[in-house]
Design brief:
Elements lengths: L10 H6 L4 H11 L10 H14 L4 H8 L17 H10 L3 H18 L17 E10 L20 E9 L7 E6 L18 E3 L7 H10 L2 E5 L6 E9 L8 E12 L2 E11 L6 E6 L6 H9 L4 H11 L10 H24 L6 H10 L7 H5 L6 H4 L4 H5 L16
Parallel strand pairs: 1-4, 4-5
Antiparallel strand pairs: 1-2, 2-3, 5-9, 6-7, 7-8, 8-9
Helix pairs in contact: 2-6, 3-4, 3-10, 5-10, 6-10
Amino acid sequence: MQHTKLSGQPILCQLLSFIPREVVDLATQTFKSDHYYKTMSTWKQLVFMLYGVVSKAQSLNSLCKCLLFLEHKLSYLGIFRLPASSTLSDANRKRPNEVFGYIYYLLLAHYRTEISDSYLSLPINGEAKPDQVKVFDSTTLSLFTDLFKGAGRNPMNGRKKGGLKVHAVLPLDNRVPELVWLTPASSNDKDFLGQLKVEPGSIYVFDKGYVNYGVYRKWTDQGAYFVTRLNNNAKYEVVREIRAEAHDFLYGGTMLDQQIELKADNQSSEARLITYKDPLTGKIFRFLSNLFDFQAHTIVLLYKNRWEIEPFFKKLKQNFELGYFFSDSPEGIKTQVWTVLIANLIFSLIHKRIQECEQFTTLVAMARANLISYVCFQTILQTAKLSMEDRNLKIVQLDIFGLEQGGVLKKKEKSP
């Protein structure tokens, strides 16, 4: 009987089938990334690096050794020769990482409609639409070398470790970031604001580490909105009280709603300051925004959604290889980060197609353990339960230690 769960190619090739070759070809032509490379093309490097980050290989040598188990299975991808570790190392060191970043953005544009969460249709507090809200933050990847300058003071003993900071803009109705910026860990978060091209009508939510009043004023002029927290040392003057009911909300809720004038570097800009008391912890929070038409509680809820980006960073570090890097060069390290983002996009797309019938972590773990299996990955994921035929398997343990043998620990009886 024909097995209906088998595919014509291994799971690794099934994953890579989500990357149209024309996308890679366009990026390769744009950056001329295949010039001076005879054997290690951009496509081949992407295939090998994707295998490394999904399988969680912990060194370049381990990655290349594990590729030997693929034998001729990569022929489906047009690859008939496995690379030497030195060849892949040279490609990681010399090929610009921007080509892989471009591949990521092209894939994002290709699948943008499909990966959006259409079920997030109810406006936040009845006012703010989820598809217009974008949250951004950064996470730091620790390195064993000071290749990218790390944050913090130099240690008393030993050598200071480097760090790479990943800034990401994540739409609230999406599963993958629409903008990623890689900097040394020592860079200031507010520098990222200069790289961000805002869209009119969008609401950007971020923490108080991104402080630049000049950028806030520029965004207001461009018709973009922001929600953040006010720094403790911020200088401002209260222009008018939109609502002052501090005594009525001593047990929690919005206590003050004020229009203020921010002052910095002989410049000023108007904003809205909302003082909020958490009913559970009793902590006081002060939120800053240029949204004057929304209710105060809507702005509080918008900032609460900022924490949606933290599970995203955790998901990247937990499911893909970002603890060990296959290169000690800036280009190689950034290339690996872009490859992880591409892998996350592919698995997010699969997760959406199977209607989230499995957890994302389980989905990646299943693929990692069976990368060279010919089973159809999406079919297995959508199998609600095993059929009778699948469950009727021999118990090998009982065949080895049959009841008639009594097991290896049972004392043999003496024959009469």
